[in-house]
Amino acid sequence: MSTSATLPLSGASSGASDVDRVEQLGRELDRLRAEIVASRGADDAHYIRTVIAVQRGCEAGGRLALAVSLFPPAWAAGTTLLALAKTLENMELGHNILHGQWDWLGDPAIHSTTWEWDFATPAEAWKRTHNHLHHTYTNVVGRDRDLGYTVLRMDPDQPWRPFHLLQPLYNALLAPVFEWGIALYDLEADETLAGRKSVRALLGDTTTFLSKAVRQTAKDYVLFPLLAGPSALPCLLGNVTASVARNVWAHTVIFCGHFPGDVQTFTEDRLDGESRGAWYMRQIQGSANIEGGPVLHVLTGNLSHQIEHHLFPDLPSNRYAQLAPRVREICERYGLPYVTGPLWRQYASMWGRVLRHALPSHRRAGGGDRGRVEGAVEDAPGELRQP
Predict the structure, then answer these.
(1) Is the backbone of residue 369 left (phi > 0), alpha (psi -120 to 50) or beta?
(2) Residue in 214, 211, 226, 220 with CA at minimum distance from that of residue 243
(3) Which residues, other chains included, contact 51 with Cβ-Cβ below 8 Å and sequence gap of 6+?
(4) Mind listing the pLDDT tens digit of every residue in the chain (387 residues)?
């Protein structure tokens, strides 16, 4: 499939037809978004409230079972239910509610300004680093801090350091403690070292994080084990296991949506004069989907539709499956890549990228997608296809 990662986005150095097609793409996706916004209603509200009820039921059942977890079947059932509850809360509820996907309901209990999720990083810190920085500057080297989370090298344009040789190891170690890694990352200590964030702001964010960390730790690893009485130790183990399972799953889903080999990266000049249509195009080129059934989609928080999420981050997540075939058809008409594949393939491709960029490398000649695996279809430097 022809791609257009190197297409200039301002009229100064490209033909008017190229610019017109980029803007035509933008208008088409704007219409698609407006269609979904206009059709939001009772079915969507029922969906999110059902997910909340299921999540709370799973958590209550898991907590009760772990309270008598001296009995192995109760431990297995309780740990499974609690892991499921934590996954649903983090992926389909917390992440999406904090994006404002459900603000239109006008329900203060399901609103981006009031929801505090069951995750180590405070909601406000996540909204700043994820909703604003990552979704605005997706995969722009030097602007999107999520491109390797400041510790992993995921692109040849990122400077190589000897410690990157160990990044396969510390990426594996990151997965089970992912929520804590994200919480530390959201402090933006590197921004303070670079002089872009004040020490006072860092200290304030650190205080907020420590307060949240104490509450999270006390809830899962002190309060509920103590309430379990004779089952305190197996209850503690169940809570740890459930949290680790959720962390590994969140790490897997997020990395498979951003770092497979065919996902493209961009230099900062891509942002010069970037229009709405060009922003849409960058989101398509910088994201990857995971193929699967309805259960997989819910467990990923519908981030298995990462392309649709990056195009429309504030639309209800239950609509992404409806949008996906239409977005894919648009991509095919315009000659844009639509990176998708089963979980195992995206996971293997992501690890290939981690391993490849652990070694010294230089920017590939010709620019374009500097994240591809060897043998992947190369960028065509030509124009967007006429739809």
Answers:
(1) beta
(2) 220
(3) 88, 92, 93, 298
(4) 333 344 433 333 344 478 899 999 999 999 999 999 999 999 999 999 999 999 999 999 999 999 999 999 999 999 999 999 999 999 999 999 999 999 999 999 999 999 999 999 999 999 999 999 999 999 999 999 999 999 999 999 999 999 999 999 999 999 999 999 999 999 999 999 999 999 999 999 999 999 999 999 999 999 999 999 999 999 999 999 999 999 999 999 999 999 999 999 999 999 999 999 999 999 999 999 999 999 999 999 999 999 999 999 999 999 999 999 999 999 999 999 999 999 999 999 999 999 999 999 876 554 444 433 333 333 332 345 544
CA 49 centroid distance within chain: 23
376 and 13 Cβ atoms separated by less than 8 Å: no
Give residue 39's Cα distance to chain centre: 26
For the packed helices 167-174 and 343-356, what is the interaxial angle rounded to 10 degrees? Answer: 140
